[in-house]
Amino acid sequence: MFIIMVGLTFAAFGLLFGFAFGWLLHRGKVTDYNVIIDQFLLRDFTVLKVMLTAIIIGGIGVLALHQSGWANYHIKDANLLAVVLGASIFGVGMVIYGYCPGTGLAAIGTGSIHALVGALGMITGGILYALSFDWMQAHVLTVWRFGKVRLPDLTGIPDLVWFIGLTATAIAFFVFIERHAVPSHLRRSSR
Amino acid sequence: MVTHTSDLHYAPTLSDAVDWSPYLAGAGIGVLSWIVFAAVDQPIGITTALSQLAAGAAIPIFGSDSVSANSYWAKNPFVLDYGVIFLAGTLLGALASALLSRRFHIETVPSVWREHFGPSVAKRLTAAFLGGILTMFGARLAGGCTSGHGISGGLQLALSSWVFLAVMFPVGIATAHLTFRRRA
């Protein structure tokens, strides 16, 4: 009974948190194919604005939660050959698809048929990866392996200094972008 | 923090009423991360759960025995857990936002694609499917996507996630500039 209750609570949390995530992605316009492609063409910086703000605001809060014992870190393994190869394939794939996995699923909800077809591609990609997993484990996943490392541990620079630096860099970058970038709706190439 | 001088040059449109500032949406995702970390003790992510769905899709193709014998699917089996329900929530949240803002519309060939590759539906859907394959394969090899690595890993200052971001963005920018150079 207890296990069922916990299961239902988790299911409800999944729906609630996922719902909020999808809502925020849509309101932030990153469920729009054109916005994502225009980011990679450096014509619209919405994607970077959303991501960097989420990283800074989220990171400072999660740091505070972690230090007061309310949250654990969940760090992904720095097996850097796999990360570099995977990120490269992902970068190419995301531009051809026009979405990342999260924004693609959200875009299906906004009526994007090509996002739905791409999601079927992602399922196919997931099957292909599972089939190649043993080979990857033998040849790729163990190369340049640094473990579940965080930048503050690696460099000795404290978390707070990282976030102050990140915030200062982001503000300088955003101020520059807001002054110089032409908003996409004013560009000649219409959407 | 940020000046909006450019906003003075055009009349208010529907966009201004519906779209949030990207900074506000990003801050919202950041705050959502706090809640998710504290409540369910796992970061926001998409592709781990998506590979569980891939396991489910593989069962009718390869049979449930070979799927459960696969070493990757043994770790990520087809179960309807929190992460998979999160995916459904993400789709539904965007659907609700799109319907309530009257932005829901069926789209097969988006305008930026059409400007460069023409109006062919088959061409766009083929590219979306192939791009989807690469996106998911890359995400699983790297250990996460723009959500799991980019946002959740980035905000934890994980080395792997910042390497992911530092490689993914330049590769994406180069790919976009190469493929979107021509015009239809």
What do these coordinates show?
- The complex is a heterodimer of chains A (191) and B (184).
- With 191 residues, chain A is mainly α.
- Chain A has 2 domains: 1-28; 29-189, no CATH class.
- Helices cover 72% and strands 0% of the residues of chain A.
- Chain A has helices spanning 2-27, 33-40, 46-67, 80-97, 101-109, 113-139, 151-155, 159-180.
- The radius of gyration of chain A is 20 Å and the shape is globular.
- The model of chain A has no long low-confidence stretch (mean pLDDT 93).
- In chain B, 71% of the residues lie in helices and 0% in strands.
- In chain B, helix 3 crosses helix 6 (82-100) and helix 9 packs across helix 10.
- Chain B is globular and about 45 Å long.
- At the A-B interface, helix 1, helix 2, helix 3, helix 4 and helix 5 of A face helix 2, helix 3, helix 5, helix 6 and helix 7 of B.
